[in-house]
Every structure is written in C-alpha cells, then in structure tokens.
Specification:
The complex is a heterodimer of chains A (589) and B (364).
Chain A (H helix, E strand, L loop, with lengths): L5 H6 L20 H28 L15 H8 L3 H32 L5 H7 L8 H12 L4 H10 L9 H26 L2 H9 L4 H9 L4 H17 L2 H10 L4 H10 L6 H25 L24 H27 L18 H8 L1 H33 L6 H9 L6 H13 L5 H5 L3 H25 L3 H9 L4 H30 L4 H4 L7 H10 L3 H26 L6
Helix pairs in contact in A: 2-14, 2-17, 2-18, 2-19, 3-14, 4-8, 4-11, 4-15, 6-12, 6-15, 8-11, 8-12, 8-21, 9-10, 11-14, 11-21, 13-14, 15-26, 16-26, 17-18, 17-21, 17-23, 17-25, 19-21, 21-23, 22-23, 23-26, 25-26
Chain B lengths: L34 H9 L4 E6 L3 H14 L5 E6 L4 H11 L7 E4 L2 H8 L21 E3 L2 E14 L10 H10 L1 H4 L3 E4 L4 H13 L4 H7 L3 E4 L2 H10 L4 E6 H10 L4 E4 L5 E10 L6 H12 L1 H9 L3 E2 L11 E2 H8 L4 E3 L7 H14 L3
Helix pairs in contact in B: 1-11, 2-12, 5-8, 11-12
The chains are: A mainly alpha (589), B alpha/beta (364).
C-alpha cells in the first residue's frame, strides 16, 4: 500500500519519518483478507449445498434417496405439473404470499416510522409491544386467532350476538394473510426500526430548514430512506409465507384452500405413500422462485450508495412532533397490538390454565394447573425446553457472527465472488424447513469417516439446521446497517494503512455492535420458535419445544400446547428484556 | 411462574386406576423354559431400549413404569414420538446409511406398516408366547403384533346437540332434518392422509350401504388433518359433531370438558384401528425388545396400556374406571358391527378411486 520507493528517500533531506504502516504477513503469496474471504465463501457453500444437493438429486430420482438403484428421470416434474389442482395451489400460494407481504409492510413501516422517528406518547411501551407477536410461533398465533375470531370464536360470538352476523371469514386467503402478516410484521418492523435509528438527522434538518412540515419530512426524507430494509424484509416475509405450514394448515385445510406448504405436507409427509420425488421437485421449484427473488432484490438495491446516512460525523436524530396526528398513530398501533397479539396471547396464556376454553362454557369453571403438571411432569418435555434454550443460545451467537462475516464480505469488499456470498447467505430462505431437515439428514449420513454418526440426532445437528434457517434473517438484519455506514470510514482506515481485516476489527466492528446484538436477538427468537427441520433432525433425546408442541397438538393436548407456548413466550420475553437492558444506552453507536 | 390453585366446580375428577400389580422378573407359566435365557440376555444388553413410535409420552408412561418394575435393570427407555408414517421413513433411511438405533417400531399407520413389512428382512422374526391368550387380530402382519386398539367414535358438542347420535345414519338423519344447523359444522378426517384413508375406507368397505349417509354428511363436512384440531374445534362449538374421531385423543377431552364434549360408538359400524408393534431386524437390544413386546401383550402390560389412555384388547383385562377396553366397544355396538381395520396395502388405483369419490362429495 503506502510504501515509498526507496530512491526518493535518498535524494531528499531526511525528514521525521511517519509512523510505519502496519505490515501484514502473507500466506502463500495471498493477503490474509483473501484467505478470510475464501474461508467464508467455502463455509457458506458447504452449509447451503448440504441440504440442497440431496434435494436436487431427489427431484430427478424415481424412488426415495435411500433405496438403492435409483434411475434419473424427469417423471417427478411431469407428475407435479399434471397433478390435479397444482395450478390452483400455485395461485393460492401467490395470493397468500403477496397478500401477507403487502399487509406486513402496511403494518410494519408506518409503525416503525411512528415509534422511532416521531414523538409518541408511550413510545417505549409500543416499541416493545410491536415485537410481541414475533415471540410466538404462528401455529400458536393461528390457534389463538381461531379461538377469538374463528367461526365459533369468543369475539365472533360476541359480534354475532350484536350484529346478527359475522362480517369476516377467517378461513380464507385474506384471513390467512392477515394472521401471517401479524406474525411476521415484527420482522419487517425490526429491520425498518434499526435503519431508522441509524438514519442521519442532518437530512431531516436540511428539509426542516427548507421549510418542510413534519409530515412532509416523513414522506420525502424518512420513508424513502427505508427502501433497503423494506426490500429485505419483504423478500424475507414473502419467502417465509411461501413455506409457512401452520396457518394454512389450520385455516385452509378444512375449507380446501391448498397452498404450497400444505400440498407438500399432505403429499409428502402425511400421504399414504409419500412421494419423495414430487417433494423434491416441488422444493426445487420453490428454490427457483426464491433465487429469482434474491436476484430482484439485488437489482433493487443496486444503488445502495444513495442510502448512506451514517457519515463519519453522526448527529443524534431528533424525533418529529406530529401534533394531533399522533393520536391516530397511537390508536392504530393499539389496535394492532391489542387485537393482533395481546388478546390472542392473553387467551393462550389463559388457555394454559384451563381444561376447556370455549365460548360455550365459562372458562373459570375449569381452572387447573394440570397442563403445566403435564409439561413439567415428563422428563422428555422438560428436556425439550432445555434443548431449545441450548440450540437457540449457541446457534444465535454462531449465526450472527457468520452473518456479520457474510455481510462484510458481500457488501464491503472487493472480493471477486462477493455476490455469490450474498446469494449463499440468503439462499436458505429458499429451502423449506422440512427439506433442510431431510437434506441435512442425508448429508450427515454421507459424511466420511463416520463423522455423521457423531452429529446425527444430536443438538449439533439441530444447531446446524436451525442456524441455516436463521442465517438469512441474521444477514437481512445486519446488511442494512452496514449499507448505512459511509464508505469513507473504511477508506480512512485503509489510508491509515489498515488492511481489510483490520479495518473491520478496529473500526467498523464497533459500529456494528448494535446490529450484531440485534441479529443475536432476532436469530435467538427465530431459533427458539423453529421446528420444521427438527422433524427429521431431532431424535428421542434431542427434542425441542417446537416438536414437542407439535406432538402434543396432534395428540389433542391443546392445554399443554398452550402451557408450553406460554413457557416459550416467557423465555423469549425474559431474554429480550435482558438484552434490552444490556443494550440500553448503546443504541447511538 | 404463577400458580393457580384449581377451583372446584369443574368436571368430575377423573378416576385414577388402581395400582397395577407386577410380578418382578416372574413370567407366566405358559412361557417356554428357555425364556430365562432371554432375560439373561437382556441383562447383558446394558439396560437401554429405543422405540420409534407415534404414541404419546403419556400413553407410554405407565407401560414404561411397569416394565421397569418388572425388569429393574432396564434403566433407560427412549421413545421418539414421530408422525405415523415418519416412523418408517426414518428407520429406513437410517438403515440405508449405516444402522439405526431403533429397537422397536410402534405405529397405527396401517398402510405404512404394510408397505414397510412387504419387503423381507425388515422385521425380526419373533413368535410371542402370549399369542395364544389373545384375540384373532393380535397379529396384524407377520411379526407385527397389536399393542392396543383404537375405536373411531362420533364426537359431539353436548350444548349444540341435544342427544347422542347413535350411528352415522342417525347423524345423517339429524342433518337432513336441520341442514342449516349442520352445514360446515361437521368434521371428518382428511382421507388424503394415511390415517383418514385407513379408517374411512375400512368403514365403507364393511358397510357399503353407508355411502347414502355419507352423501348427506360429506357435503356439510370439513376435513381436518389431526385429532387435536378436531376435538378442539368441536369443544369450541365450531363443529357440532365429527365422525371417525380417534378415541385415544378424544377420551381425555371427554374427561376434562365437564360434560361439554362426548363420544359415541356408531352402531352401524365402529372402526377399530390396531396399533402395530414390531422389532427391527438389527435391533441393538434385541433381547430387551422381545421382553418389551411380550410385556405389552401380557395381562400386566395390557393393564398398563389401558392406564396410559389407550384401549386394551386382551380378553382377560377388565374395564374399570380409568381403564378403556375393546370389550366396551363390542358391548356398545355388538361384535358384528366392530370393523377391525386391516393392515393391507391398497393398490394405488383403489386409493385414487376412493379418495376421488370421497373428496368429490366434500363441499370444496
């Protein structure tokens, strides 16, 4: 870098030599950053390809992978497309996913702007409350919604007594989309809120100086700055709704609305003769769709430079004063929090203390702690709570670290394959959890030297599977923050002689701490809720809360499902509360 | 964690079954003399047992408790609770890739069992000495024994249905009288799933005339994929009634609901689904697995099975409070109306024909 040619120094009068530039060792003639970057690339590639390759192979095999003598054939695809009603399935999925994404953004973006950038009464409470729905798996949320808003729900019954009819139908694609949007809105909210907290106040000040009113500032300066987190979160939400199973299963199955995931579930996991080939072919299709989405995302975020707003000199953002309009905001957020989350979660907690929960009978008649006795009475169930904590705790740290590395390599380096790194980090959203489970199961089975036996069925396998699932969320939550750190910070470090690795360890690392912590919280919660890969990766002694809930649900022990869900919510709330305390006062980094 | 003391005024307390007497390390006198070697072999296996099942921990608990009482060296029993088909998918993929830890498979997915067992070398050949003491459906396939039976009931919400439907025909008659009340308010099991297919097709095969009633009921019915959802929604009043609701998950709801949720055995045909149990060919603890298999078929074991909430079918196990037996079903509907579902592989065209006819009737 900054080594002066020696000839110059001889001809000039000696001056005070500047501090020597740091010297970095080279390995095999390559700078260490290259090693680091290739290591990240290789690691991600192995991780992502492990479940994908068996899936692709399965999609063109005429029999289950584990049966010898498979023949390559395109039959599975032919069967998939000629399967009666598959066109309808694709259409339903598209409607559901688009509806969910639009509704999610409609909920999340205004709320993030209101909570973070304007003066709101109870702003702190709302900031926390906005994220509540995120703490429960959509299986539980869906169940809570049914008990309230379903055809025989508490709220529906009350409305019917009052109006004579129920003006909504939960068992429809809009109903599914609203529930899923409520469950996923916190993800989009977290992304947008993080970006807004970082945004540069000087732009707003400039607008105000030019005479813009608060609303105008919001719409012309603040909201446009949200494009990167919006694009990220909408892609994420879209992919999640393409593969979510619980809500479509609860709402759609009884009325015959089939989406992609329920199609996979009934044809692949529940069917009389599971057709792995069709499962593989369908998953390959999802893969194509989501890879396409990631490409679109990359296009949309091409001029990411426009969104740089954290410069070397940051000022503390001031909150805007909206005047009387703020009460509308308060009302809107309250409706979302109370009807979307608080009531269903409250109902759920209440459900866990009753034997029967129905509008037809006073629930106070059957108060009991039996549901908790059952959960804490069986060693297998208690073990599953510990396992979940272990997997989510260790996994969150590992995944967030990996996500930071991936973001830095893909967004902030001159690495030749940086785009590939980004694709790899985002690729897991394209793989349904069930497929990740089966695929990794195979990958472990084929590991050389019997290494797979050490991993198979252990918590390590779960951490790998869940971590893979959580990686895109981690990446997506860190990337916008990195995009907002001005390039001149790196340049300053580089000019001072730091190499790429050093730039990040000493300069950007500090600035990234809040984003890293945010990613840890996000991935912890995601991994605590996760269950689908575990269906194949867990064994009898590595069960987690999710699989146990599913077990109890299928057996009809709804009260215990509610109890376990309450335990899970309590754990999550405690964790997020603690994290919030620890992060207090560091958000302005 | 806040704790609440349970207030009285709920449903009648569920009666606890009396203690199950267990003869420690003693086997009945009709067992062969060489059984002692099996017991000695089990002692040498280190006292662990791994079961892949689709059975609830609660159903297992008394069985494990009494088995460990009888053979105290079996310290550690792990029971996976998987989806009914998954039990086999999983064990097959493990066997294909270097050995499975599973000793015993337990599932009530008849089609999946039949498919799994049609290939040779997938089960350990074992003749249980208990076989002579059991009914004719104790062995559903070669080397696959019946651990328990599960009757398919009509479940209904007592606050919405003034009297118990006696049969499917009775339910259809009620629905014809008041179509508005029953429209979209009946639930049945999705026949695209293995469980739903087995019980529904067994019923229509045994009682072909019932299609007339199904033509009334199915257009009003909504399919669900798990008993849990069905019982919960009947309880909530979203459904008035459901048919082919599995007894095992429904009984606890009956006990807990304070009379709001009831089940009835349909008199025009009650399908009974056996729960199959078999030993894997390369079981790491083969001797302990054999002991366990004989135990669940023995009088002591069947009592424990019933205590766990499943239905015991061994003739010399009598019903008592908290113990369900197959005899109850027979007494309720008559032996000629009990349809024991068979563990047979249905050819694909028949599956398609049945599912097509059934789904065609559903209001979708």
């Amino acid at each position: 870098m900054a080594v002066l040619p020696e000839t110059l120094t001889e001809t000039r009068p000696p001056v005070e030599p500047p501090l020597p530039a740091p010297r970095y060792r080279r390995l095999l003639g390559a700078r260490r950053e290259l090693w680091a970057q290739y290591a990240v690339l290789a690691f991600l590639a192995v991780l992502v390809l492990a479940p994908v390759v068996p899936t692709l192979i399965q999609s063109v095999l005429d029999r289950p992978l584990y049966e010898a003598g498979g023949i390559f054939t395109p039959d599975n695809y032919v069967r998939l497309f000629t399967e009666a009603g598959f066109g309808k399935v694709v259409l339903n999925t598209a409607l559901f996913a688009v509806g969910t994404t639009v509704l999610t953004l409609l909920i999340a973006v205004p709320m993030a702007v209101l909570v973070v950038r304007t003066k709101l009464p109870f702003g702190r409470v709302f900031a926390g409350a906005m994220q509540w729905p995120f703490f429960i798996s959509s299986l539980i949320l869906g169940f809570g919604w049914i008990t309230l808003y379903g055809p025989a729900g508490f709220v529906s019954t009350a409305v019917r007594d009052w109006l004579g009819f129920v003006p909504w139908n939960l068992y429809s694609i809009p109903g599914m989309a609203i529930t899923e949007a409520v469950a996923l809105a916190p993800i989009a909210y977290v992304f947008c809120a993080n970006a807004l907290r970082k945004s540069d106040a000087s732009l707003e000040s400039a607008a105000q100086v030019c005479g813009a009113r608060p609303l105008r500032v919001l719409f012309t300066v603040v909201v446009p700055m949200l494009r990167p987190p919006m694009v990220y979160s909408s892609i994420l939400v879209f992919s999640m709704s393409v593969e979510t199973l619980s809500v479509p299963l609860l709402y759609g199955q009884p009325v015959g609305i089939s989406v992609f995931s329920t199609f996979l579930y009934t044809n692949g996991l529940q069917s009389i003769d599971p057709d792995y080939g069709v499962l593989g072919a369908a998953s390959t299709l999802i893969l194509l769709v989501t890879v396409g989405l990631v490409a679109v995302q990359a296009k949309l975020l091409k001029n990411a430079q426009r969104f740089v707003s954290v410069r070397g000199k940051a000022t503390r953002p001031r909150r805007l004063e909206l005047g009387r309009l703020k009460w509308i905001g308060v009302a809107a957020i309250s409706v979302y929090v109370v009807f979307g989350a608080l009531l269903p979660i409250g109902g759920l907690v209440f459900r866990s203390f009753t034997k029967v929960f129905t509008p037809l009978q006073n629930p106070f008649q059957t108060l009991t702690t039996a549901n908790y006795d059952r959960v804490f009475g069986f060693a297998a169930y208690v073990q599953s709570i510990w396992n979940s904590l272990l997997v989510a705790g260790i996994g969150a740290l590992v995944v967030s670290f990996l996500a930071v590395l991936a973001v830095l390599v893909s967004k902030r380096s001159t690495f030749r394959h940086r785009k590939l790194v980004e694709y790899l980090a985002l690729a897991p959203q394209a793989i349904p959890g069930i497929i990740i489970g089966i695929g990794l199961f195979w990958a472990f089975a084929y590991l050389p030297f019997g290494l797979g036996g050490l991993v198979q069925g252990t918590l390590v396998a779960l951490i790998i599977g869940f971590g893979l699932r959580a990686l895109p969320s981690g990446f997506g939550s860190i990337a916008p923050s990195v995009l907002q750190l001005g390039q001149e910070l790196d340049n300053a470090a580089r000019v001072s002689g730091a190499d790429w690795v050093r730039t990040f360890t000493s300069v950007l690392g500090r600035l990234l701490t809040p984003a890293f912590a945010g990613a840890v919280i996000l991935t912890f919660v995601t991994m605590l809720k996760e269950y689908s890969p575990a269906i194949f990766l867990a064994s009898a002694d590595s069960n987690i809360i999710g699989t146990t809930m599913l077990e109890l649900w299928v057996q009809g022990n709804t009260g215990s499902v509610a109890a376990l869900a309450t335990v899970q919510i309590a754990i999550t709330a405690a964790f997020v509360g603690l994290a919030g305390l620890l992060m207090k006062g560091r958000t302005d980094a | 964690m806040a704790t609440l003391t349970a207030c009285g005024g709920g449903g009648a307390a569920v009666e606890q079954a009396a203690e199950n007497p267990i003869a420690v390390e003693q086997v009945p006198d009709y067992y062969p003399a060489e059984y002692a070697q099996l017991i000695a072999g089990s002692k040498a296996e280190g006292g662990t047992l791994t079961i892949y099942s689709n059975t609830d921990q609660e159903n297992w608990a008394p069985v494990f408790r009494d088995f460990q009482k009888k053979y105290p060296w079996v310290a550690d029993i792990q029971a996976n609770n998987l989806d009914s088909d998954e039990v086999f998918q999983r064990v097959l993929s493990e066997q294909a890739t270097g050995g499975s830890p599973a000793d015993i498979l337990v599932s009530n997915a008849a089609q999946a069992w039949a498919e799994y067992a049609q290939q040779p070398e997938r089960l350990l050949a074992y003749q249980s000495p208990e076989l002579s003491k059991l009914t004719d459906f104790a062995q559903v396939l070669p080397n696959v024994y019946t651990m328990a039976t599960d009757p398919m009931t009509i479940a209904y919400n007592t606050s919405l249905l003034e009297r118990a439907p006696e049969s499917l025909a009775d339910l259809a008659a009620m629905a014809r009288q008041d179509p508005a009340k029953f429209q979209d308010k009946i639930t049945t099991r999705d026949v695209n799933g293995a469980f739903g297919f087995t019980v529904s097709s067994a019923f229509t095969q045994a009682a072909p005339d019932s299609w007339a009633d199904l033509e009334t009921l199915l257009p009003m019915a909504r399919p669900e994929t798990s008993s849990g959802t069905q019982t919960e929604k009947i309880l909530a009043g979203e459904y008035v009634a459901g048919f082919f609701i599995s007894g095992a998950p429904a009984y606890p709801v009956v006990d807990n609901s304070g009379g709001l949720f009831q089940v009835a055995f349909p008199k025009d045909g009650t399908v009974v689904l056996p729960r199959g149990i078999g030993i894997t060919p390369k079981a790491p603890h083969a001797n302990t697995a054999k002991l366990f298999l004989d135990f669940v078929l023995s009088q002591e074991g069947q009592r424990a099975v019933a205590e766990g909430g499943l239905t015991a079918y061994r003739p010399d196990v009598t019903a008592a409070p908290g113990l369900r037996t197959h005899q109850e079903v027979v007494d309720a509907v008559g032996a000629e109306n009990v349809i024991v579902a068979e563990y047979q592989l249905t050819p694909e065209d028949q599956v398609k024909a049945f599912v097509g006819r059934w789904d065609g009737l559903l209001a979708r």
